[in-house]
Amino acid sequence: MLKQQQNLSGDEKAALQGFGRVTTDSPPVFDPGSAIEAASSFFTANGYVVLSACLDPVEIDHLNEFYDRTQEERPHAWGLRNDRKPHHQQQGLIFSQPLLDYPELDPYTQHRSSFPVVASIFGGETHVRFSEFNFREAPENAGIGAMNFHHDAVSADRFTRSPYMPCDWLCAIHYLTDVEPGTPVFCVVPKSNTYNTLKEAFEGLGEAYLEVPIYAAAGTCVLYDTAIFHTRLDGDGVRARRTWHQYYARGGWLPTDTRYVRPPTPVLTNWNLFPERLALHPDSKTKLFFSHWNTAQCEWVASGFADPIRESMPRGNQ
Predict the structure, then answer these.
(1) pLDDT of 176-235, one tens digit each?
(2) CB 33 within 8 A of CB 54
(3) Span 2-268: which CATH code?
(4) How far apart (Å, rounded) are the C-alpha atoms in residues 135 and 126?
(5) pTM confidence score
């Protein structure tokens, strides 16, 4: 995305801060237990969907306790020391690969509430692949500057393929704290997933162009197509926000209306690693879910999951 921004004109760069058409209307919210089909349809039409009460109070307490515990035990992994990592810039705090060392988190990777909706969006559970799992925090008094609107990983054929869905990558953001006015808030531009720049989305969508902040209680989950434009709007600089982010890729080969076979989505990163207990899981469905390997993962597996190989990988020694 940085390289793409460098090639933009001055007006286009300014537009990345948004066009100020921030709606005060709350987006519809769907029950992940009883409204899977409706939630999936809304996602298909808009590029995102909000799911209510995906995490129960016990899970919210567990994950917040995990934050407190690991920030005390492993501050370097969170970027809490002076030698902050480049990928923490303008992101607050990030624990990039907690699954490597904490099996207690495994049940969340296919969470009983949000995962069935993810599977529906991708066209079935066998088409869902794990990509990344991380925790983030915008701390109190962080002084974090404004983040540009941007998209995450994208595939060029999204402009021409028919049908567009299923999307290539999907991210699930679970709120671990209440997000209310004054809190840093996730904000999306619905229907912007087939535009190359935010300016093009503004011009192409016309009156339908909106910047939608998603205020919601802890336990809420937002699913979004990584191709839609989104950002984090700053809060009041005092209130903190904690979120769990999980990325999924589409696996399997799909026919399309234009008579070519659509290949599986490429890997999301070249550095993310899956621990042995998940990559070589005895359950075939779980092993398929964790089968979307990048080159770093292949080399780590070939080494017998050797610690020195892991430690040589980017973010592998957190």
Answers:
(1) 999 999 899 999 999 999 999 999 999 999 999 999 999 999 999 999 999 999 999 888
(2) no
(3) 2.60.120.620
(4) 26
(5) 0.92
